[in-house]
Amino acid sequence: MSNARASQNTSASSLSAPLSISSTTILPFLDISPDALVIINHAGTIVLMNRQTEAVFGYARSELLGQPLELLLPERFREVHTRHRERYFSTPRTRPMGIGLDLVGRRKDGAEFPVEISLNPLLLDDALHVIAAIRDMTAQRVADRKRLQQGEQIRQQAELINLAHDAIFIRDPVSRVLFWNTGAEDLYGWTAQEAQGRISYSLLQTRFPISLAAIEAQIERAGQWEGELVQTCRNGSVVIVESRWAGVRDEQGRLTAIMEVNRDITRRRQLEQAAQSVQTETAARLAFLQQVLDALPSSVYLVYGPDARLLLANRAAASVWGAGWQVDQPMLEFLTTHGIGLFDAQGHPLSSEQYATLRAAQRGETVLQQQELIRRPDGSSLPVLVSAVALPAQRQWSGPLAETEQQTPVGEAVALVMHQDVTALKEAEYLKDEFVGIVAHELRTPLAALKGFADMLLVQTARQRGSALAEWQKEALEEIELATNRLVRLTEDLLDVTRLQAGRLHLQRTPTNAIPLGQSVAALQEQTTTRNRLEVRTTQPELVADIDPGRIEQVLTNLIGNAIKYSPQGGPVTITIWEETAARLVGISVQDRGLGIPKRQHGQIFGRFMRADNAQAWGISGTGLGLYICRELVERHGGQLWFESEEDASSTFFVTLPLVSVPQADHEVSS
Ligand code: ADP
Cβ < 6 Å from ligand 1: which residues? Predict the structure, then answer.
């Protein structure tokens, strides 16, 4: 009774005259009412009641008739109510009872429950009565409480909503804004007060991806919707938002409101669009590059990363390999999958570290015109010159060219590789080799005759057979002999080249002590010079190598001969012989302080007929065949030949040769 509260559903007071009716007429109508109806006389005694009264209060009709109305109230209210009723009879009018009070009824079992009572004066059988309509308010009060709780919940949620960065607003089914959080104020620029009551999509000039009707149909069906909207803020700026809508329903399931949560994704979209246009532009450029590359007759491809994965290739590349190299496939995997082999110009298999592509991709080397022979899957061979250049690491390479959306991981090195088909050159070279071979072969017999007869003339004259020769005749004969010797060496070199090319050069290996071999070559060569001082250095008395002594003598003669020949101003020539114990090799180096070899020609000096510019500038004669033959001979022994040189300073040539594999304690050593 303490809580003051306005009664809401009772009619306003009325001053109209009381209704006049007889008790027999009214009876059938009483039961129609959903409220408990009780008619009391002037003394406050119940004279009539309907069935609903029995149901609401739990009394039988007989128990109530003739009883005071106050029986239906808790005892503590009875006295007050009696006075109240008596006052009412003095000024009867239709009015609710106990405005501002919580009225309580009492059932027969003593249980109390909230009621609302409205009183009406009534002339029943011409006597003033009062009809009281009593409504059980239990359910109503529960609903009121619930509404109150819900209200509180919504208030708390609204506070939370205001904490969110998203723009959140709630609108009624016709899109009038009911609630507008601070996120919405920040994003759109209208305050909650300004936005309230406005039609949200008109206010924000919302552009929907589909029709509003379709969105509303989905809210009706599924309760929610998600999509992107374009909206305009108060200052005219346009924002793109990621929008989520959720329908709010009442207890009867009617849609009462829609909550719209909008996240500003304008910046994200702008960045995406910028990235997209960069990508489109890059793709167009790459497509153009691809067209240019495809128009080239030579094979060109790009690889990335240490395992040389294919990034892009032009049309000619596929015909070079005789198989399709898949984008992103590592080079070695591609070669093994298709059984493709790579060989050097002499037909020796190349180890993978020697592949021009891998040298550039793994070590960043620039490889120019390396000869490689590709053995294709169908067994055919293709001689090529390979150039591979490491390019600066690229940030990204994308799609259409490579027919993939993948990109090279950031910072991976990229190498550009070109193949030049040299089949025609090889054929010409083959014909030239054939020709050189035939000429050299044909020269041998007349040269042998020349040399033989010159020798014979000199020897027989010395033995005083026949008439003595004049001094000038002797000198002429000696010159003829020297020239023939040079010619013989030249033809031998030419024949060696053709033998090597044709794979007809065979080694006669025998365990040989390399130290006396080196010493004897040095001693012989020393006789050819007055400008140079030759020195052989070694700490070993014996190093037995598994070699063809004639061929290694040829190699050392060439290297020491070059050291003398290319030191026109003299200087020491040092031959060092040592043992590479762990590798079971003998090492020999020949060092001079001569012309040196220009750096730019280091890569080509072992090629056939290759001569350095400075040697020619000094007018030193030569054929450019010696080093080529030396390298071939050493490699056929399983050894290596290389050099270090600085122009105008010095050159050192290094040879390694295999030591015999078993100790040669009681082996006969040839030297
Ligand atoms: P050549 O008959 O020209 O000497 P080689 O094949 O022996 O042929 O040598 C090839 C070229 O290498 C020479 O022409 C010369 O330019 C250069 N060369 C070889 N050895 C030396 C050296 N010790 N010092 C400087 N240059 C050298």
Answer: 558, 562-563, 566, 592, 594-597, 605, 610-612, 615, 622-628, 651
